Amino acid sequence: MEKLIIYAAVGYPRKTENPHFPAVPETWDGLIDSAVRAHEAGASIVHFHGPHDDKGRIIPEAWGRLVEEIHKRCDVLIDFGQAGAPLEQRKPLLQLGKNKPDFMAVSLTNHDYRRRSPERGEFDVYYQHPRDELEEYCRLLKESGVRGGWEIWHLGGVWNFNYLVEKGLIEAPYWLNLFFGTPGGVWSPPTVDEITQRIRNLPEGAPFMLAPRGTAGPMGQTRMLTYGIIQGGHVRLGTQDMAWYSDGVPAQSNAQIVARIARISRELGREVASADDARRILGVPPRA
Q1: Rounded distance between C-alpha atoms, residue 243 and residue 251, angstroms
Q2: Per the CATH hierarchy, to which homologous superfamily does domain 6-282 belong?
């Protein structure tokens, strides 16, 4: 069994009512430090959303500066998030030279979330990702040398993924991110049965990671990730997905969350992957 890739989704800075959520970065410097500390605890890939202007548009060079600052302190792989943003805004993120990411998250089906915030209460989020957009992503990723982090929310995402593979637009090794428990139209049950069904339908031998969130709850997330480790999968966790360490107990840092799953994996007899191990497993060339 391959070493375990731990993928830390540290998210983006947002104001919180500390000490209720002390693990959530509140500044960009805090995000950088959180990413570095997560790597030191065992994460080989970190995922974040970078800065935007006052109209909500991505500022590509600012995302690049985050990559540069993180890489001054460690050699972790970088995944750019915000798969729901317009493709035209994300294109420049693939042209950042030495500061471009190793991966870019791409949702294989439409986003349909139900969210809650202190300011807005409950609200819906929708982003469409038609197949012609997915095909364009494949071409742009290949041209830039950035790998796709393919997000699969339910089995329809597996169908779209196979469609792209059959058209020759995606080459192995793949990197599949399986989500569970997000409220809304992308919801799938955070259960062992659902994990098993999803894995059964993946391309044989494809590296995949589990990302339980939302209705999974913090302890459900930990149990699901442990099952994934046993099944040979990899794991995604972090304050973007779950800012609680256990039921009713806020996480103190992304590093704390990463350290627990690294400890569980080692106690199960599976070593944790370094950044170089993750590059080998996922076919990512070394950084220049």
Answers
A1: 6
A2: Aldolase class I (3.20.20.70)
Digits of tens for pLDDT over the chain (288 positions)?
Answer: 999 999 999 999 987 655 667 899 999 999 999 999 999 999 999 999 999 999 999 999 999 999 999 999 999 999 999 999 999 999 999 999 999 999 999 999 999 999 887 778 899 999 999 999 999 999 999 999 999 999 999 999 999 999 999 999 999 999 999 999 999 999 999 999 999 999 999 999 999 999 999 999 999 999 999 999 999 999 999 999 999 999 999 999 999 999 999 999 999 999 999 999 999 999 999 887
Burial code (b: 16+ CB inside 10 Å, e: under 16) for 121-140 equals: eeeeeeeebeeeebeebbeb
Q: Look up tokens 């973007």; give the residue.
A: 240
Cis amide linkage into residue 19, ω under 30° from 0: yes
Structure tokens at 29: 């410097």
Rounded CA gap, 27 and 4, in Å?
A: 30
